[in-house]
Amino acid sequence: MVGIARLLPRNYLFTILGIAVGVSGLVALGAMAERITRFIDGGDRFVLGQISVAGEGMGMGTGFTAGGLLRAAKIEEIAQVPGVAAVQAQVMLPLNPTTSQFLTLTQELILGVDPAAPMPNRQFRELPVKSGRFLRANDRGVAVVGVDFAATRKLAVGGRLELAAGRTFEIVGVLDKTLTAPDRFAIIPLDDARDLWLRRDPLLVQVFAGGAGMGRRDLNTGAAVAWAEGVDPDDLARRIQAGVPGLNVTIPGELSRLLRQSTAFFSALLFGIGVLGLVIGGLSLSNTVTAAVFERIRDFGIKRALGATDLQLLREILGEALGVSVSGGALGVALALAIGTLVDARVLRDGQQLFLFSPRLLIFAVAFSVILGGLAATYATLRIVRLSPAEAIRRGT
Amino acid sequence: MLVRAIGLGKTFRGPDGGPIPVLDGVDVEVKPGEFVAVAGASGSGKSTLLNLLGLLEPADRGEIWLGDVCVSRLSRRAQCPVRGRSIGYVFQSFMLIAGLTALENVLLAARYVGRSRSEAQPVALALMERLGVANRSGHYPSQLSGGEQQRVAYCRAVLNAPPLVLADEPTGNLDEGHAAVILSELRRLCRERGASVILVTHRADAAALADRTLRLRAGRLESGRGEGTT
Question: Where are the domains of chain A?
Answer without folding.
Answer: 2-40+264-396, 57-245
